[in-house]
Amino acid sequence: MRVGFVGLGIMGKPMARNLLRAGYPVTVHNRSRPPVEELVAEGATDGGSPQGVAEQSEVVLTMLPDTPDVEHVTFGPRGLVEGLRPGSVLVDMSTISPVATRFIAARLRERGVEMLDAPVSGGQRGAEEGTLSIMVGGDPQTFERLRPLFQVLGKNVVHVGPVGAGQVCKACNQVVVALTLQAVAEALVLAERNGVDPVRVRQALLGGFAGSRILEVHGQRMLEGNYQPGFRARLHHKDLRIALETGRSAGVPMLGTALVHELLGAVVARGWGDLDHSALARLVGELAGGAG
Amino acid sequence: MRVGFVGLGIMGKPMARNLLRAGYPVTVHNRSRPPVEELVAEGATDGGSPQGVAEQSEVVLTMLPDTPDVEHVTFGPRGLVEGLRPGSVLVDMSTISPVATRFIAARLRERGVEMLDAPVSGGQRGAEEGTLSIMVGGDPQTFERLRPLFQVLGKNVVHVGPVGAGQVCKACNQVVVALTLQAVAEALVLAERNGVDPVRVRQALLGGFAGSRILEVHGQRMLEGNYQPGFRARLHHKDLRIALETGRSAGVPMLGTALVHELLGAVVARGWGDLDHSALARLVGELAGGAG
Amino acid sequence: MRVGFVGLGIMGKPMARNLLRAGYPVTVHNRSRPPVEELVAEGATDGGSPQGVAEQSEVVLTMLPDTPDVEHVTFGPRGLVEGLRPGSVLVDMSTISPVATRFIAARLRERGVEMLDAPVSGGQRGAEEGTLSIMVGGDPQTFERLRPLFQVLGKNVVHVGPVGAGQVCKACNQVVVALTLQAVAEALVLAERNGVDPVRVRQALLGGFAGSRILEVHGQRMLEGNYQPGFRARLHHKDLRIALETGRSAGVPMLGTALVHELLGAVVARGWGDLDHSALARLVGELAGGAG
Amino acid sequence: MRVGFVGLGIMGKPMARNLLRAGYPVTVHNRSRPPVEELVAEGATDGGSPQGVAEQSEVVLTMLPDTPDVEHVTFGPRGLVEGLRPGSVLVDMSTISPVATRFIAARLRERGVEMLDAPVSGGQRGAEEGTLSIMVGGDPQTFERLRPLFQVLGKNVVHVGPVGAGQVCKACNQVVVALTLQAVAEALVLAERNGVDPVRVRQALLGGFAGSRILEVHGQRMLEGNYQPGFRARLHHKDLRIALETGRSAGVPMLGTALVHELLGAVVARGWGDLDHSALARLVGELAGGAG
Q1: Number of structural domains chain B divides into
Q2: What pTM does this model have?
Q3: pLDDT (tens digit per residue) in C45-66
Q4: Cys staple from D287: which of B50, B91, B266, D239, with CB 3.0 to 4.6 Å?
Q5: Which of A124, A139, A164 is the last residue of a domain?
Q6: In this complex, which of C183, C243, C249 lies closest to D256 when CB atoms are compared?
Q7: Percent of chain C with pLDDT over 90
């Protein structure tokens, strides 16, 4: 299978290299020249433009910064659509808008070109080591056909739904990572400003529940809508009050904690104080207009 | 070593039972009778009151709902202080205020009684299986002397600092758990309202970075103040913008995500957009009056 | 001065009527016919299309829902640019993006057409009574030339800076109104749930420092539970999105605005988008466990 | 009517002076001597202690920093209860917890002493000029009997409900003031960072719907960067803590208030606690990457 690759940045270059090393013929393009020359020296072909890449490929992978870049590379002058043949596939591995993704896919479908969105997580190291997580949206048969390709690039490859679903999934991933980061940030500052060694706090938390299993255990509860405790929401509410008081006495503003404290207060106020604290998902669902 | 145990609720009863099974002589007290009788049938002694428990014990463990309960059991009528001898130890395993803990410890010290605070995480199951995480504050030698006791109750036992430090550490734990819960809640609702199966999203995220390693990897970066990317803050800022737009188009309010999006905006505005996103900890530190 | 008016909605129709009554010859256009026929019966001319309006006018006013509407009316088929002559002026009184405004102005300037942005506040009543506040951006001389026109429509007319500045100012206005609404909502629910008569609390606060017209007007609506608009929650939601985008493009984190934006998103998600924005109090009441 | 006054700080001293000037015989006490001597020189009597004040008064007014101060002055050594006779009245004009207020009132009632809570707004200037807003909770007949006294101190005197209701109302006031401040801070920084003159934006908004006295007075302080108090940020921080506790005890989630509470916490943590609370604009400016 002849593969094209457009976008040879921090992520794209090692990904294209892994495809080369796995034996795929790879045609590449990048806005700046050096990474192209580097990969050509390792056996890749220089496509000269997105159009040139598309003309020589059955599958084209893109790894670009943002939505306008993908639109430009696909539909701009000497863009991919000028070279993609009916039956070929565009796999966009950038992190971009799900809405724009669906729009691009619809325009390509008019020309007989299939599109998968396949954003990744795992960073530069995952790209280099071929251990990325890949969240794929699009036609299931096309996904199965390209699975060997994905398995060169990552080790956790999941088909999550129709085109755009990969980007939705990536958005979910970024939400979880961001809030968890903020949580760890607030916790470690809270410890340090209370005269407690944050190194030991991190060690203690790693061994316990905050280390890892919330997504696993509580995510499952949220999915099932099964809020039998578990840990009662009103107790978690109380514990966060203590955390906030501890922060206040040490001069630590805790914006995220104060927010979730108020949300748990809302969970309690709605009469769900004796449900499991994962009933936060019921509150979020209700705020989103659902039955809760 | 003769052990006392006051507070035989969902957590306390299985903990006391585990001490009995490990061969410790245990004297117990509880406000209501049934759990006392249950444990007496298994070999425990009924202390009759906190004072009675204290009179027959070298170490007394308390597992109570909130700060006023610990104060009442310790200093109230027929309280622990009436029975505790100089050289004995009070180990409070409740989750209560660190400030109140330090105050109680100081009053006990006047009478020659040592105090450890040792709150736990791991829930009812951890209590039953003896797999709790235990975060201990207090005199290190006293901690070492009681370590065998703790190891009956939990498997991740960490001494984190002077008295009160255990409660500070527990507060940190609850912050991390709460914000991560909110994150998972927002992510799963976001997926579902965008027509993407949240079961698959959870599966995809479990395999990737959001599953577990933020505390491990980014926590370490925050501790070192080493914000070499990694993943640049300005890219995470962009990704959250996409997440918020995706939520808006599906009618999903995302309070936590919007908050962290603004905070990452502040990270970028301070000129740290090319640092690792764990620079959120630098922002939190600066908001707390530090150098950032 | 011959005046054109495109967009005869709840705001636009009474504004155009006030211009007619002040003696200006007015050519109008609207997507739906009835308001056109109504104004023609009062002396207006039917332009037939934006282009038709532009051909018969020295100054064209637009009053449209959102950014894409202004772009479509200006540059779409039979759009304003097909009819605007060099030296004529487009005054956009809609509430839209400052960034898009500057872009539209630049394209018009290439054709010798001047643009002012002149968003308003004051609602339907202000439009009918000619008492709007008008925040104007653009060339000062053009503003001075059109001042008599603005004074027919509003009584507080302020030139705030170059083109786009009017929209920035409107974004500021919407931020202040939204957070103050949220403040009043939280305060009145707080009083009521503590057993204190919110009618008296409003009265007490009106006499003091917190007194503002929002407390007076919207506080009364909240107390009556009468959420007939007024200003629809979904429009305020949109305006805060614009404010947040404006902040993002300028590197201004807006924590309060982002919070209230999400809360208005929740108001919309619960199906209350066409209620008055003071329905924030219904959301707060529901979060506090009440019927909403 | 013989009046006692305990607490001669920035607010209390001019209030006591106004009572003297109105012809009331006033007995005073203060922890530090100078304000006592100042008022004795103007005709007041030195009570020597809270007890001494109470022994010579039918009505005692207190104006103290926080809840523990009121508790100490009332029930501590040589406290008010040692001197208050049955039928006398304690009027606490401090801003303290509504819950603590109800508790103090209950203890006084056992001794036949009536209590009104009567917190104020209007600041030092309102205290000096006798133009405070006074929000009164307690027995309506007692309120009517003392109305002439209140009318010496303020011009907007409202009875809002039973004892504690005045403090609830004051909490509402502080919520509205805080969120409106945050609103004005965000709006002015938003304007300035978008290259729009914030002086004109304030002028434009003053004429419109957002117009309030906060925009007028504090907006001007923010524009000048003149944060001389005024009302100190750390006191407003404290008042919002009370408001949040009041909300928590009544099951009212207060997302906006919690947010601004944390932001005021950040203002305090940065060492600006003794600046005027409009220093929120300095924080917003710093979050936006400026010098603060």
Answers
A1: 2
A2: 0.83
A3: 999 999 999 999 999 999 998 8
A4: B266
A5: A164
A6: C183
A7: 54
Q: How would DSSP label each residue in chain D?
A: --EEEE--STTHHHHHHHHHHTT--EEEE-SSSHHHHHHHHTT-EE-SSHHHHHHT-SEEEE--SSHHHHHHHHHSTT-GGGTPPTT-EEEE-S---HHHHHHHHHHHHTTT-EEEE--EESHHHHHHHT-EEEEEES-HHHHHHHHHHHHHHEEEEEEEESTTHHHHHHHHHHHHHHHHHHHHHHHHHHHHHTT--HHHHHHHHHHSTT-BHHHHHHHHHHHHT----SSBHHHHHHHHHHHHHHHHHTT---HHHHHHHHHHHHHIIIIITTSBGGGHHHHHHHHTTS--
Give residue D218's domain range: 168-287
Q: Residue C204 maps to which CATH number?
A: 1.10.1040.10
Angle separating helix axes A165-193 and B280-287, nearest 10 degrees: 40
Which tens digit of pLDDT belongs to each residue from B273-287? Answer: 899 888 888 887 777
Whole-number Cα distances in Å, C106 to A135, C59, C84, C204, D197: 41, 17, 15, 51, 21
User: What's the pLDDT band for A292 if we cut at 50, 70, 90?
Assistant: very low
Q: Which residues of D touch A185 (CB under 8 A)?
A: none
Choose among D177, D251, D256: nearest Cβ to C256.
D256
Average pLDDT over every residue of A180-204: 77
Of C269, C270, C289, Cβ closest to residue A269? C289
Confidence of residue D208 (pLDDT cuts 50, 70, 90): low
Nearest residue on chain A to C284, judged by CA atoms? A266
Whichever domain contains D16, its CATH number is 3.40.50.720
Give the best residue of B189, B238, B248, B257 to mutate against chain C (max C CB count within 10 A): B248
Q: What is the pLDDT of residue D215?
A: 72
What percentage of chain A exceeds 70 in pLDDT?
A: 90
Whole-angstrom distance, CA of residue C196 vs CA of residue C63: 44
Tally C-beta pairs within 8 A across A and C: 18
> Are B258 and B147 contained in the same domain?
no
Report d(CA C140, CA D200) in Å as an integer: 14
* % residues pLDDT > 90 (chain D): 54
- Residue D29 and residue D110 in one domain: yes
Res. B246: pLDDT tops 70:
no
pLDDT, tens only, D110-129? 999 999 999 998 888 899 99
User: Is the same domain home to D126 and D180?
Assistant: no
Determine, yes or no, domain membership for C292.
Answer: no
Q: Please give the residue of chain C at the shortest CA–CA distance from B244.
A: C262
Residue B202 in any domain: the answer is: yes
Residues A139 and A18 in one domain: yes
- Give the confidence band of C160 by pLDDT, cuts at 50, 70, 90: very high
- What is the mean predicted confidence (pLDDT) over C19-37? 98
In a domain, D292, yes or no: no
Question: According to the model, what pLDDT value does residue A23 have?
Answer: 97
Q: How confident is the model at residue C242 (pLDDT cuts 50, 70, 90)?
A: confident
C15 with C122, same domain: the answer is yes
Give dist(CA C257, CA D149) in Å, integer: 42
Q: A227 or D60: whose pLDDT is higher?
A: D60
Count of Cβ atoms closer than 10 Å to residue A2 Cβ: 14
CA nearest D245 in A: which residue? A241
Higher-confidence residue of B256 and A42: namely A42
Select which of B13, B155, B170, B238 is catalytic: B170
C28 and C136 belong to one structural domain = yes
| pLDDT at res. B15 | 98
Answer yes or no: is B292 within a domain: no
Give the residue from A131, A164, A197 where a domain finishes.
A164
Mark whether D228 and D141 lie in a shared domain.
no
CA dihedral sign of residues A223, A227, A232, A238: positive
